[in-house]
Design goal:
heterodimer, A: Nitrile Hydratase, Chain A, 2 domains, two-stranded parallel sheet, B: alpha+beta, five-stranded antiparallel sheet
């Protein structure tokens, strides 16, 4: 199975992993400082989970329901083919091609298909929302973790976590500030709660000073977080994922 | 249902713990893609809808929901669904040995996205209230909008009503993108002209008399 023909529903509270404990985030709760493998934001993941997951997969493979190579294929797909680089391509095209920008805002699904990005599951479709000088958009799924997978790949763990899902609708400016994104009081913040099969892409503002950049160079500036809306695209940010 | 999954507006979960974008792996353990792959493959059998899958997760006890990792929640739901819908028997799951062939799919889930014959109830710009309803089963009307007044921005197509889809019944219904002002949802202390947008099914909305 390829990862690009699905748009699944993410409902993930799982954000920390023990082998990466020196990054600069906070793992809330009381299990903050262990250095052993810690799958969730909360302790005590039963040790049999991995076995049960593999047993279920293997039974489904025995019955011909999953491709026995499905695990490798899904990992490979999200590693190499389906990820934020696709969304970045869409954003860069919209920045350099006014006609494309208008088509993207009018019909996101069709516009990304123009660039060869399909794979929207039953009824799901894409809407692009544009950041402007007076509007900042940010996307969430408070009820689970709906996300534009064909365009951005697997959602980050924080997107699926209780802290983000609970608070970004109530205090979007506070959450954005945790990502280093300060929004001027005069700018309207629009939070998009993806609770149907509509999926959202934030079209970030093109940073100043990029007039001479090529489309590919622009795409390299656009990171996943900016397309969720928790960050802005900056020239210094050049560390795009995917 | 008023489950723990309906998190919008709650406090107390702490700051957002974001791993650096550049280095966060897609999967944090090697069994996670096995669950993801199993989820996709079984959903494609069309024995249950995405809404039934969601409801199965939503029914977990609140403490379990919060304690389980994301893919563990999926795994628990899948273990329940495969047995409920005859994909695997409880014995097969317990033993890890496949023994029976797949039973016939007697209630194939067939979603429809065709608009209903009845005309749309709401026009762009209509002022509407989200119905104050607290169903025992699945719904996609989060608690924080119920009883609140918003503005219809536009109609956004037709999807199966989640309440019915979770029970395997397809009732196509129109959806509307509705804007709720932050002050309407969260009171006068909330941020100025901020707003929350979401799609709500037609029966989730009522006209303001």
């Amino acid at each position: 199975m390829s990862g690009d023909d699905h748009d699944h529903d993410h409902d993930h509270d799982h954000h920390d992993h023990g082998d990466d404990h020196d990054h600069d985030h906070h793992d809330h709760g009381d299990d903050h400082d262990h250095d052993h493998h810690d799958h969730g934001d909360h302790s005590d993941v039963p040790s049999d989970v991995a076995l049960r997951a593999k047993a279920l997969f293997s039974l489904l493979a025995d019955k011909g329901i999953v491709d026995p190579d499905g695990v490798d294929r899904i990992v490979e797909a999200y590693e190499h083919r389906v990820g934020p680089h696709l969304g970045a391509k869409v954003v860069a095209r919209a920045w350099v091609d006014e006609g494309y920008r208008q088509r993207l805002l009018a019909d996101g699904t069709a516009a990304v298909q123009e660039l060869g990005i399909g794979g929207w599951r039953d009824g799901s479709r894409l809407v692009a929302v544009e950041n402007r000088a007076d509007v900042h958009n940010v996307v969430v799924c408070t009820l689970c973790s709906c996300y534009p997978l064909p365009l951005l790949g697997v959602p980050p763990a924080w997107y699926k976590s209780a802290p983000y899902r609970s608070r970004v609708v109530l205090d979007p400016r506070g959450v954005l500030a945790e990502f280093g994104t300060e929004v001027d009081p005069g700018v309207e913040v629009r939070v998009w709660d993806s609770n149907s099969e509509v999926r959202y892409l934030v079209l970030p503002e093109r940073p100043a000073g990029t007039e001479v950049m090529s489309e590919d160079e622009l795409a390299a500036l656009v990171g996943r977080n900016a397309m969720i809306g928790v960050e802005r695209v900056t020239v210094a940010t050049g560390d795009v994922a995917g | 249902m008023n489950g723990i999954h309906d998190l919008g507006g709650m406090a107390g979960f702490g700051p957002v713990a974001a791993e650096p974008e550049r280095t966060e792996p897609n999967f944090h353990d090697d069994w996670e893609p096995a669950v993801l792959s199993s989820m996709y493959a079984t959903l494609r059998l069309r024995r249950w809808s995405i809404d039934e899958f969601r409801l199965t997760i939503e029914r977990s006890a609140p403490l379990d929901y919060l304690r389980r990792s994301y893919y563990e929640k999926w795994l628990v739901a899948l273990e329940e669904l495969v047995v409920r819908h005859g994909v695997l028997s409880a014995e097969e799951l317990a033993s890890g040995q496949a023994s029976a062939s797949l039973s016939p799919n007697e209630h194939r889930w067939t979603p429809s996205f065709e608009p209903p014959d009845a005309p749309a109830r709401f026009v762009d710009g209509a002022v509407v209230r989200a119905v104050n309803r607290h169903p025992a089963g699945h719904t996609r009307a989060p608690r924080y909008v119920r009883g609140r007044v918003g503005t219809v921005i536009r109609a956004v197509g037709t999807e199966p009503l989640p309440e019915d889809a979770a029970a395997g019944v397809c009732t196509p219904q129109r959806l509307y993108l509705v804007r709720f002002e932050a002050a309407e949802l969260w009171g006068p202390d909330s941020g100025g002209n901020d707003a929350v947008y979401l799609e709500l099914w037609e029966s989730y909305l009522e006209e303001i008399p």
